[in-house]
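Appendix B, example 12.
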Amino acid sequence: MEGRIAVIGGGPAGMMAAIRAAETLGEGSRITLFERNDRLGRKIYLTGKGRCNLTNRRGWEEFSPHIHPNQGFLKHAFRAFSNEELIRYFEEVLVVPTVTQQGQRVYPASLVAGDVARALERRVKALGVEVRYGSRITSLGQLEGYSAVIVATGGKSYPVTGSTGDGYAMAREAGHAVTTLFPSETAMLPKDYDRRLIGLTLKHVGLSLNVDKTCVQQEEGEFDFTPDGLESGIAYKLSRRAVWALVNGQKVEIVLDLKPALSEEQLNNRLMSASRLRDCDASQKNALLTQVPPAATLRSFMPQVLIEPFVQAHPGISNETLPKALKYWSFPIVGYKGFERAVVTAGGVSLKEIVPKTMESRLRKGLYFCGEVLDLDGDTGGYNLQIAFSTGALAGVNAARAVLQ
């Protein structure tokens, strides 16, 4: 098997690694892609709520703050195969038109994730890569004789798709350190969760993350109340730090701001106008301020279905305290959904032991890592798939160059 390359894992990183390696070699038959499932890209079908958020069009300066824990590590891979290059590749080579939507998120124009997975699989086969379906590799010892091995097994999130952490065992086998693994982009469960909130989507709101009573992150946008807690959108953006804090035994609180565009003072002015408090004398005003806000007033600040849970969460709410309550609705977080539902695995193969310009192991020549198996992840919004495609492309090109020498 001299001069041959083995790619373990047929997800986005693995397929891109095999594709770029075959394009570099000019001979795909020298590459074997091992996939434990009966088709490639199974996890892609689930991404972006079935629409597949391919990437995000932001330039590096705006893109990089969305990468964790070491944005600098990705810089070489991103510049070697950037988001704009990825979009061109899909449109011109894979013949998958794309569309850019809110937040610079890029999707296939069809908004069908399967179109992305199938296009990548067609390219893999068109280049002559040997694909071995139903082949689970759990040890590097199974691949003796290959000149280069690319580990692209993914993380532990959505294990039903085959992501069960095999790559971490192989990394340890080669002497690599694996940092603590924990779910990211996952639902966060509040204490005494009010089930009446389930099914509600809140838009144009703010969420703040407090860890041990200190605010560490703030986001604005939308999120969902689901059976598992606070989920999707800006809740996902907070979940990485929230879960890590819970793992480390810290106190976690999510604060909901129903009116992030308005200050307490502005809300107070609106409330006074709505309640005609401006026309009252001092004694009348004091009496009205201590009263519970009528439903008509609350409806002007929130959806009808939110009123009862809001009032119950703020015992003793009055016209006077309403502005602050609208800006500070506390949700102590006591749990989170595990890898079975998490979109992303945080943690992984230590970046200190990987060469960022090639994705090759610093410990074993000819061994490469790419995608979610690395200790590298991004926020929701197309960042994680770009990590997979960029690191996969770089690993594939450099593995091919190595065997050509």
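DSSP finds 13 helices and 18 strands in the chain. The chain has a mean pLDDT of 93.
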